[in-house]
Amino acid sequence: MILDVIFEGQVSNDVDPFWQHVSLRNLEMKSSILPGNVLFVPASKPPKVFWKNNDFIRVEFNGNYGQSFRKEEANSKFLDKVFVEVVINQCNSNN
To answer: What does pTM read for this prediction?
Structure first.
């Protein structure tokens, strides 16, 4: 399995100009998945990623988030028999 974290910059007049896409894909898939199938977050900083073993990954975001961010939508999930734990540590929020 491959975990991709892709930064996407938006046009300057977008209310959320920075996005992080987190995707989990198998080795046969040659390109990343956009939008992220684990999570896509309006954040300027990439997450910290910890592979705990072959079937458990922790993705941790720290910092400030954009106007369209909703913490309740940032859920942990199983994908292809891998549990991806999503942790959001907010410094500042619009919620």
So the answer is: 0.85
Which sign does the torsion angle of CA 36, 39, 45, 47 carry?
Answer: negative
Distance CA 53, CA 65 (A): 29
Q: What is d(CA 68, CA 13) in angstroms, rounded to the nearest whole number?
A: 14
Report percent pLDDT > 90 for the chain: 59
CA angle, 21 then 47 then 27, to 5°: 55
Q: Does a cis peptide bond (omega within 30 degrees of 0) precede residue 46?
A: no
How far apart CA 43 and CA 55 sit, in angstroms, is 26
pLDDT at 92: 54
